[in-house]
Write a structure and sequence with these properties.
This protein has 105 residues and is an alpha+beta fold. It has 3 helices and 4 strands. The protein has helices at residues 27-41, 55-73, 75-89, and strands at 2-8, 14-20, 93-97, 102-104.
Length: 105
Amino acid sequence: MRSVVTIVFNSRQSLELSVDVDPGGQAPLAARDWFDATWTRLGCEPLRPSGKVLLLDKMLGVADALGYAKLAQDGQLAREYAEQAALALEKPRITVDLPGLVVGF
């Protein structure tokens, strides 16, 4: 499946990444585990006052913690993020909007 993942950092900085992934089987679960592990490794904080952290919150937190500069410079890391997002959500188009705190698909 081809998937386009757009990460919007602000009105002037965004990345659009096109990846080919093979969804199904254990891939979505492994992608969720990747976001869990990366969220923890980067020391991300919950976005909601309740402290509840959903997959989409982890996608936002990881993108924010990695930042535009790092993802723009490290193509392999950016591709890995996009692949994991595509596998976790199994959607052809995903937008991670940091200013709006929304993941759309």
